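Morning!

This is the sequence you dropped in the shared folder:
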Amino acid sequence: MSLHDLSGVRAAGAAPADLSPWSEEGRRFGPVTARLRGVRRIFAGRAVLDGVDLEVRKGEFVALLGPTGTGKTTLLRILAGLDRADEGDVGVAAARSVVFQEPRLVPALRVWRNVVIGHRRSAASRKLAAAALDEVGLVRHADAWPRTLSGGEAQRVALARALVQEPALLLLDEPFAALDALTRIRMHGLVQQLLRRHSPGVVLVTHDIDEALSLSNRVVVLNGGRVRLNAPVDMPRPRARTDRAFENLRQRLLAKLDVAADEPPI
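The structure's back. Tokens below.
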């Protein structure tokens, strides 16, 4: 297994024929921020990831879909440096951040200190935290304790903490799964706004097909440890679930996930 830093490395050659290096807004994606080639990860003799290839560019939003246990979170953990591949080549930008399903805030630190955790304490770090919290609409909670926040507020703090690092690669491990429906919709809008501003490469692990289609530029389906579909989402924003193109791609994803059209989504 080979692991190397992709910081500053630009993609070589053309994009695969079925994938566009352009966003649906006509904006060209930037340098490669993550590249996997032939990655395998084996647990108890079973290949959870079995020869996975994946490339993510700066400014691109890739959603990972797949049944439970198919390797989505394992792949994300490898990209985050929290796990290793048994075989294959892994290249990841050094500047990367992770937002988990739980906010993982430190209870003993005030909100602003959670945002700049790892930074040296100074007036500059306080200003940095305030700017990041302002972006997520929580600057007035800077001196609050994490226990006083709602679930949505806590996840916004976690997002501010991730983006204050100015990552080239942002990894999202089902960060909206525990939120109520209305808060989830608001978070989707906030994430899209922040990503337009910061423009990292993004990998989102989700079980929600509609979420994947609403947010991403590309959807990758993992099933049985392998990539079963790697499809661009070439639809203008905002995206309507009633749109024919949205529904057609949704049905295509369901088929690759081995879900019948009349079954509830995974």
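Headline: Strands lie at 2-5, 32-43, 46-57, 61-65, 87-92, 96-99, 169-173, 201-205, 218-223, 226-232.

More detail when I'm at my desk.
O.
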